[in-house]
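Quick check before the chapter quiz. The format below is the same one you will see on the exam, so make sure you can read both the input and the output lines.
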Amino acid sequence: MKKIFTSLVNWLVNRPGWLMLIADNTRLQSAPPERLGGAWWQVLALSAAWGVGQAGLWALAWNAPQGRAALPIMPVVAVLGVTFLWVYRRAAAALADAVVGGPDRPLGMAVIVAVWALILLTLRGWNEQSSAENPWWLVWLRPHGVLRPLLLAPLWGAWAMMATCLFCRRTYTSQPAVLAYADRCGPLATAAVMGGVLTLSIWYFNYLPWMQVTISGVTIVAAVIAGLVFSRRGRRLTREVLLATNLLTQTAFLLAYIANRI
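Here is the expected output.
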């Protein structure tokens, strides 16, 4: 069993999507560039898996025996820890570099984590069922209201990487693997993914007033502007640009959701 588990882990961490989203730059650069062609769907799949994972982690921490009484911020700590110590650790560093520059990266990362902590603390107060009861066969598709933005945020981040490649893919790059990744993020694939995530967002947030469409609108605008600004500032499209755009888009999405709830 241990051997099977080890083989499965080794297979997962060598997938092109993992190399682009989570692995360090050394491993990405050592991979043949052609492996990254078409990896956008793996990044999307990993993002969807993390959305389910962080929602499950939140629910597990929230429902832990005596958790709410003894450790009321446990869901926030759990999600923050896994997000910034593992899944989006490099994305946070890339965003900090893009916003405040390399020397001030620790300060930038501290601000990012603080903003996310405030976001999650706000979400923590909304653990009610936000819409009418659903049929039993739809319950797993539409969980409690607070879990829905956690499920959707990584998908919007993955789409933002695709959109940045679409608008900036002709920009030269010093990273052949990133160029190979960008070359396969065509307009049809990008539009199809946006349509799917947008539809899911509207379905998940249909208990909000009609102005809830601004959640998706703000997210799309933030993704496009961030990708253009980050890539043109350095005059090249890099993995850091893609990861920074991913995390900034997720942050904009969660803030837009909160604004619509207040």
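If your answer matched, good. The CA atoms of residues 223 and 249 lie 5 Å apart.
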